[in-house]
Amino acid sequence: MNEFRPSRFEVLPLIIKNLLIINVLVFIAQNTIGKQFSFSMDDYFALHTWKSTLFQPWQLVTHMFLHGSVGHIFGNMLALWMFGAVLENLWGGKRFLIFYIICGLGAALLHLLFLNYEIGHLTKEYVDLVAMHASNRTGAAEAMMNYATKHNIMLNDEFTNYLRANPDDNDAAGKLLDVLSNHYKETINTPTIGASGAVFGVLAAFVYLFPNTYIYLYFFIPVKAKWLGLAYFSYELFFAIRNSAGDNVARWAHVGGAIVGLLLVITWNKTNKKTFY
Q1: For 88-101, b where at least 16 C-beta lie within 10 A, e where not — what string?
Q2: Domain spanning 14-117+193-271: which superfamily?
């Protein structure tokens, strides 16, 4: 099938409608109940790395229903409705929900694999610094300052100048290590939230099934789905590989969701010709 031309189309099918409602209700809870009662929904329901003490298995699913801002949830829910409604009308609610959850899980697992790889290097560096400081090894203070520079940890210039002039001041080095320890703990416990991984799977399936359907960028620039999908995936893959400092977007989750969605729709399309075209 190259272009989507439905004979019967529900603008807001059941599963899409319920996913939108659940996401909006959770977002409201994040910004009302959670803040009012000093309850961090991110700690319990956002996705954390396996190395974090906050990690729980259910977070592989629950993180898909949390969002960080109005723009975040609006973008995800708009894309979910635009492309997901088409797929649910084609497949039916049950199959679409299974597809959506599998894409979200696949995105989360790939994200965790790369996150675990990155944090593994960070952990080794941090443990080495702790050992150097504990044994009063020569060069420990300089190594800690180099670590801070490498990981973009802001330090007071006056303090670092003092430490360079007095590298044997164990108390000053200990204070620096405290700063690095806090940064390390924050990094380990950084949460990942959002439905983007699952939505990328939905987008990939739509592009595969309806590659020549026109999507109107900014409501008036027509672009075929296959070119938009390829450009968007390439963009995410480029920045995932580049891994730019300060980029807080879970790029590998986006890439993972798209790959899982594409593989799943290709597999289903081979075994169910009556449903897929």
Answers
A1: bbbbeeebbbebbe
A2: Rhomboid-like (1.20.1540.10)
